[in-house]
Amino acid sequence: MAETDVLREYVGTASVWRKAYRDGGRRFRLAALRLFARALGLAPLIPPPPASPEAACRNEQRMIRRLATRGVTVPEVLDAGPRHLVLSDLGETLAAACRREPCPLRRRELIARGLAAIAELHARGVWVSQAFARNMVVAGDRIGFIDFEEDPATVMPRRAAKARDILFFVQSTARFLEDQPQALAALLHDELVRESPAVREEVRRVVRRLWWVPPIARHFGRRSRAVADALMVLAMVLV
C-alpha cells in the first residue's frame, strides 16, 4: 500500500502542501482485515487493495476532480508529478480543532458540522477515501476533505462506501464526546435520517454483526476503545 510524506511549504505568503507517495507496508494487516470483513459480510470495512505510489497519486487527483465538480470543498492541485502533488492549504483539520477546544459544547458543534458535511457529500452522490476527522478540514464556514489515495467504491457498492464514511467519522470523533454519548447519538441520528435506507442498513449490519467487539476492545489501547465507543453510540441509534 502506498504511503505518503507530507511537507508544508510556502509560495510567497501562501501555505501549500507537498505530498510525496512511496511504497509502504501493512499488506498483511490489510489482507487480514479483508478476509475478516468478507467473512462477516461487512462490505464497508473491506479495504481497497494496495496501490502503487503512481496509482495512489493518480487516484488522489481523480477523486479531487470528481468531488470538486460536485461542489465539495477539496484542495486545489497546484502541481503534479508521477509520485507527488502540491496542494493548496484548506486550514486546520477537524481533529486538531476538536483536540484544542476545551469547551464540550464547541466540540459538539464541530462534530455536528462534520456530520452535516458528510450528509451533504452523500446527497451530492459522492464519498471520500477515509472520512476520519484528521482528513476533514475546517475551511472557514465550510468543512473540506483531504487525502484521497484510495477509492473504496473499487471494492464495494456505493451505498457501502457512504456507510464507510459514517463509520470512520464516528470512530474518529467519539473520543471527543466520550463523556456525552447521548449527545453524539443525537447528532448521529440527525445525520442518518438524511441518508438513504440502503446506507442506513449497511451501517446497521456492521453494528449488529460486531456486537461482541465493544466488551473486548475496551480492554486494549486507545484506538480499540475508540472503536468500542463508536459501536456503542451507533447501537444507541440503529439497533
Structure write-up:
The protein is an alpha+beta fold and 239 residues long. It has nine helices and seven strands. The strands form two sheets. A four-stranded antiparallel beta sheet has the order 1-2-4-3. A three-stranded antiparallel beta sheet has the order 5-6-7. A hairpin with a 2-residue loop joins strand 3 and strand 4 (84-88). Helix 4 (104-123) runs parallel beside helix 6, helix 6 (181-192) crosses helix 9 and helix 7 (197-209) crosses helix 9. The longest helix is centred in the middle third of the chain and has 20 residues, at 104-123. It is globular. The protein starts with a strand and ends with a helix. The model has no long low-confidence stretch (mean pLDDT 94).
Determine the N-to-C terminus distance: 35 Å
Radius of gyration: 18 Å
What string gives the helices and strands in order? EEHHEEEHHEEHHHHH
Helix content: 40-55%
Report the principal-axis shape: globular
Largest sheet: 4 strands, antiparallel
Q: In terms of per-residue confidence, which ranges show pLDDT below 50 for 5 or more consecutive residues?
A: none
Total E-strand runs: 7
Salient structural properties:
single chain; 239 residues; alpha+beta; 4-stranded antiparallel beta sheet; 3-stranded antiparallel beta sheet; 9 helices; globular
Characterize this entry briefly.
51% of the residues lie in helices and 17% in strands. The chain has helices at residues 27-40, 53-69, 94-100, 104-123, 158-173, 181-192, 197-209, 213-217, 222-238; strands at residues 2-11, 14-23, 77-81, 84-88, 92-93, 136-139, 142-145.
